[in-house]
Amino acid sequence: MGTLKEMLSSSERIVFLTGAGVSVPSGIPDYRSKNGLYTGRKNPEYLLSATCLREEPDVFYAFVRDNMYYPDAKPNAIHEKMAEIERRDGKQVTVVTQNIDGLHGLAGSRNVVEFHGSLYRCHCQKCGATVRAEQYLESDKHAECGGGIIRPDVVLYEEGLPEDAINGALHAVTQADLIVIVGTSFKVSPFCNLTDYRKKGSAVFAVNQELLRLPFPFTMIQDDAVSVFKEL
């Protein structure tokens, strides 16, 4: 097996599996690290649960509005290089991301499977209307239908994953010549199970500051992902 740069050059179908560490260099905190979103909070999973949204919508809204949105964040070298590989080399590239910040799309990636949804798509739970994120950040009450509660289209604790996201991710992984795991501990199911469906002979690389231990042969690049992707 060659280097990551060589494999990217020789592979026609590439899948990037990305996690929160990809967006940290853009100023968006991850969840469980020392300076992550969950640090110092009591039962943070509850604040991002379907129960909290249903029973304490004001508590849910305040937490999401004040802690989850980074509208000024810009794509970094990782997002940009993934999009560039698709544009420059004409590869069939799919990004399957756990991130809900929309930065892969902003960077220009055309085939993005947002496994857990996006903060920048919202809808009213009462009338079903699509609502702009900018409107949601002003109020979670949908005035147009008499005050229905608006929510972002993200997967909360206690909710299942969208079927189209699962199908899109599986289709990409089963076709891939090369799978590159970036910026994730790769421990959260079912995201970490996607590689179980890789085709025979596909190569797997992981780029992460934390050492990953996977139950199959792969190449580990234990380094800062920004530095690695700048060199590709």
Automatic annotation (TrEMBL):
Keywords: Metal-binding, NAD, Transferase, Zinc
Annotated SUPFAM superfamilies: DHS-like NAD/FAD-binding domain (SSF52467)
Catalytic residue positions: H116
Enzyme Commission (EC) number: 2.3.1.286
Binding residue positions for Zn(2+): C124, C127, H142, C145
Domain Deacetylase sirtuin-type span(s) in chain numbering: 1-232
Pfam name, any one: SIR2
GO MF terms, alphabetically ordered: histone deacetylase activity, NAD-dependent; metal ion binding; NAD+ binding
UniProt keyword Transferase present: yes
Name assigned to this protein: protein acetyllysine N-acetyltransferase
Species annotation: Listeria booriae
